Amino acid sequence: MDEINRILALMHEQMQKAIAHLENELLKVRAGKANPAMLEGLYVDYYGAPTALSQVANVNTPDARTIIVQPWEKTLIKAIEKSIIDANLGFNPQNDGILIRINVPPQSEERRKDLVKRAKAEGEHAKVGIRTLRREANDNIKKAQKNGMPEDLAKDAEAKTQIITDDFIKKVDKHLELKEKEIMTV
User: Fold this and answer.
1) Are residues 59 and 89 in the same domain?
2) Domain match, 18 and 61 both
């Protein structure tokens, strides 16, 4: 019984990580509103070393259409501007010598549909990961059964893995539904 609880707990923990990863990836899919997460993953050349933008500047959103990047050192402003342009995010940063202002343009219907497709692809990756974790847990249960676990306990454990998997698939669908609604809202 302890073996089953350990297998199920590990599977649950890994599925939680898959959901957290999905949430992180969905943050990067930009809806019409400005969000500091849009610049996540950007690196700036900081004295020859690639450094995360968040470690060399404040990034905030004063309103729904603007992102402000304020470097901690004014000498970095050109490097930050260059990294934003090079990232090819569809932004046109404006540098006033003190900070960088990015106006987030409203998106066309076609662009929003593309973003929904991208979000759904991320959701599908999460679902595949969750199903893989279910299969691994079921394989571990079968191994335990070969090592002497009663068959009825193994069958119950496999049923529990399916219930947990279904719950996590529903969570993925819920995240995708909310993201699609956010993207398609003008």
Assistant:
1) yes
2) no
3-class DSSP assignment, residue 31? coil
CB 44 within 8 A of CB 13: no
Each residue of 24-61: b (16+ CB within 10 Å) or e? ebbebbbbbebbbebbeebbbebeeeebebeebbebeb
Per-residue pLDDT for 186 more than 70?
Answer: no
Which structural domain range is residue 75 located in? 36-103
Of all helices (H) and strands (E), which one includes residue 133? helix 109-146
Q: Which of 57, 81, 103 is the last residue of a domain?
A: 103
Give the CATH number, domain containing residue 21: 1.10.132.20
What tokens does 126 get? 């999460």
pLDDT for position 140: 93
Note whether residue 134 is domain-resident. yes
Distance between CA atoms of residues 114 and 108, nearest Å = 10
Which DSSP state fits 75? G
Domain boundary pick from 59, 88, 103: 103
Task: Identify whether 133 is part of a domain.
Answer: yes
Nearest to 20 by CA among 121, 180, 168: 168
Give per-residue pLDDT as tens, 78-128.
888 888 888 777 778 888 888 889 888 777 788 888 888 989 999 999 999
Task: Return the pLDDT at 133.
Answer: 95
Q: What single letter denotes the amino acid at residue 47?
A: Y
